[in-house]
Amino acid sequence: MKRLLGRVIEYLRSRKLAVSLAALLVFILLFAPLTYDFFSTRGNRYDLGRTPISQVPFHHVALVFGAGILRNGQPTPYLQYRIETAVKLYEAHRVNILLMSGDNSVINHNEPLVMKNYAVKLGVPAKAIVVDDAGFNTYDSCYRAHAIFGLHDATLVSQGYHLPRAMVTCAHLGIANIGAIAIHPTQDYALNYLARELVSTDKMVLQLMFKPNPTILGKRLPIT
């Protein structure tokens, strides 16, 4: 009986160790890409709430990522902050062109046009804005910015939680870049955004390994 009890305890200990190792592996797989993105891009992200905009390196084009539009056709607060930050970069002569990349998959949801109209409303000439109608996600936006619009370098504009993944994605798809953190008065990022970023970063690893074509490719339209 004593021997049997010893075997049971030994078995339970081995199971506990196996479960602990499995949990550790899952944790590493989930968080390692996110950690890599954060630290590998740390020196090239500029927080315009803390850094004078004059210290942001110049790039000809700012790639502005979509973040949804409201039912009334206006940009969401997240997207609004991204556009406003891009406009500040333009006004400070840190960029010459704004590439608005968003979702135009259905007739009543033209995100890049909303982005363009808002930037024009803030004073950017329409001729200084290019729209990418097929930027359905970060990977598609980066892929098309290089393959369709001919970008080899750019300033990426997004919130701080999203920029590391965007910067790593664009870098691996041929665009040397820096990141401008969208000016955000409260930085109250919703939990669902942060959770989605964790999953999306793991998905990014597979995308960059296999480099599939974006949802829509099309003909080249180089930005001169």
Describe this structure in words.
By secondary structure, the chain is an alpha/beta fold. The protein has a single domain (41-210), classed as Rossmann fold. Helix content is 47%, strand content 13%. It contains 6 helices and 6 strands. The chain has helices spanning 2-40, 77-91, 111-121, 138-147, 163-172, 191-210, and strands at residues 45-47, 61-65, 97-101, 129-132, 153-158, 176-181. It has a 6-stranded parallel β-sheet, with helices on both faces. Strand 3, helix 3 and strand 4 form a beta-alpha-beta unit. The longest helix is centred in the N-terminal third of the chain and has 39 residues, at 2-40. It starts with a helix and ends in a 14-residue tail after the last helix.
Derived structural class? alpha/beta
- Morphology call: globular
Strand element count: 6
CATH level-3 fold name: Rossmann fold
What's the CATH architecture name? 3-Layer(aba) Sandwich
Write the element-wise H/E pattern from the N-terminal end onward: HEEHEHEHEHEH
- CATH uppermost class: Alpha Beta
